[in-house]
Amino acid sequence: MEARTETDVAHVAAAIGDPSRAKVLLALAGGGALPASALAAEAGVSNSTISGHLAKLLDARLLTVEHDGRHRYYRLATTDVARALEQLALIARPLPVRSLNADTRAKALLRARLCYDHLAGRLGVAVMDALRDNDILAAEHTGAGATAVAYAVTPHGHQELSAFGVDPDRLPRRRTGVRYCVDWAEQRHHLAGALGAALTARMFALEWLRHGRYRRVVHLTDAGREGLATTFGVDVDQLF
């Protein structure tokens, strides 16, 4: 087998670098799958133009395509793609807001959104803070730098999460259990990985969260406000 040395960062960066393709990737950053027509609308291009953009994203291995009869649906290739988009947003300049609708969407994304399959934004960071403050997650510096941190579920946290309906011992083995993203809006950690996905899925199942009208945006319900406060000690009133 040929040894792998340097990676072709430029090829991936070029695929992401086009504004229309960036809009496609961000539209899929909530973890769902969409047909080409919907992605064309998100990118603001014609159906004939979107096919070339999708081909480039597939070639760069940023997307995968699923076939359902005669229909094709596109999604991000891996959770690492969503993670990379979130990290790029940390160093990117804000897009100018040119309409009331764009302003409303931007504010909603800042409050609470999906980063692939886990909760992000101001709400996601607040949940992460609460998990640490209540000894559900313990942080340990890895020694790779002052900001390099690893998180682990504590024995107390194992009990609390299991009571909530998320068993840390039964998380999917194909991905890291406890990871974090540096939230581009808050510049702080929100919970990712298999545990972040499981917690978010449980909140949807309990109807604590609901999807908003904009892609990736989620809203906290009244039940969620009460549930997060009583279960994890999240002071939602301080967030919104």
Low-confidence stretches: none
Q: Cα distance, first to last residue?
A: 54 Å
Widest sheet, order of strands? 1-3-2
The helix content is 40-55%
Class by SSE composition: alpha+beta
Q: The biggest beta sheet, please? A: 3 strands, antiparallel
Tell me the number of helical segments per DSSP (H or I, 4 or more residues long): 10
- Rg of Cα set: 19 Å
Write down the domain tally. 2
**Mean pLDDT over the residues:** 91
Question: Strand tally, please?
Answer: 11
Spell the H/E element sequence.
HHEHHEEHHEEHEEHEEHEEH
Summarize the structure.
With 240 residues, this protein is an alpha+beta fold. It is 46% helix and 18% strand.
What does this structure look like?
- Residues 1-96 form the HTH arsR-type domain.
- The chain is α+β, with helices and mostly antiparallel strands.
- The protein has 2 domains: 9-77, Winged helix-like DNA-binding domain superfamily/Winged helix DNA-binding domain (Arc Repressor Mutant, subunit A), CATH 1.10.10; 106-238, no CATH class.
- It has helices at residues 9-17, 19-27, 36-43, 47-59, 79-91, 100-111, 121-133, 155-164, 193-205, 222-232, and strands at 34-35, 63-68, 71-76, 113-115, 118-120, 137-141, 149-153, 179-182, 189-192, 209-211, 218-220.
- Strands 1-3-2 form a 3-stranded antiparallel sheet. It has a two-stranded antiparallel ribbon with strand order 4-5. Strands 6-7 form a two-stranded antiparallel sheet.
- Helix 2 crosses helix 3 (36-43) and helix 3 crosses helix 4 (47-59).
